[in-house]
């Protein structure tokens, strides 16, 4: 199993170079399960906040992230699972609150998510080969640290 958490793009562009490198690594290593935890299109990205992108957030996901997901699917074994877990920071998903359900099928189709890629809720509990895993895509330490009194 390989797990990675976003954001998957650098702060000076929306080219998804880090996600591209991860896809390359995953296709070399060929894990049976890949879990990608958002944000995929972070609302806090400077290009989005400042209106510097020519693409809408949905289109950024469609034209930048989806081709990399398709490349990942092609590079893994046919039995491998690819799962996406949303983040409250995602600007391209319909519900930016916590907890987050799986985006409905129409949203997934609209975003161009390949059918072979699963969405899991945030938080998610899944059983893989008899082992339970729990995923929580919230930076709890950030929230705790912001309440700390020095």
From TrEMBL:
The lineage of its organism: Eukaryota, Fungi, Fungi incertae sedis, Zoopagomycota, Kickxellomycotina. Keywords: DNA-directed DNA polymerase, Nucleotidyltransferase, Transferase. It comes from the Eukaryota. The gene is POL12_2. This is DNA-directed DNA polymerase alpha subunit pol12. It comes from Spiromyces aspiralis.
């Amino acid at each position: 199993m390989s797990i990675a958490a976003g954001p998957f793009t650098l702060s000076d562009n929306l080219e998804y170079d880090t996600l591209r490198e991860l896809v390359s690594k995953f296709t070399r290593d060929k894990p049976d399960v890949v879990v990608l935890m958002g944000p995929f299109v972070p609302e806090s990205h400077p290009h989005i906040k400042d209106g510097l992108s020519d693409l809408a957030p949905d289109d950024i996901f469609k034209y930048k992230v989806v081709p990399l997901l398709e490349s990942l699917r092609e590079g893994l074994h046919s039995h491998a699972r690819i799962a996406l877990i949303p983040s409250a920071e995602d600007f391209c998903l319909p519900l930016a609150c916590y907890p987050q359900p799986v985006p409905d099928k129409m949203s997934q189709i609209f975003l161009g998510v390949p059918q072979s890629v699963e969405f899991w809720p945030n938080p998610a509990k899944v059983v893989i080969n008899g082992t339970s895993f729990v995923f929580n895509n919230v930076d709890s330490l950030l929230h705790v640290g912001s309440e700390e009194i020095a």
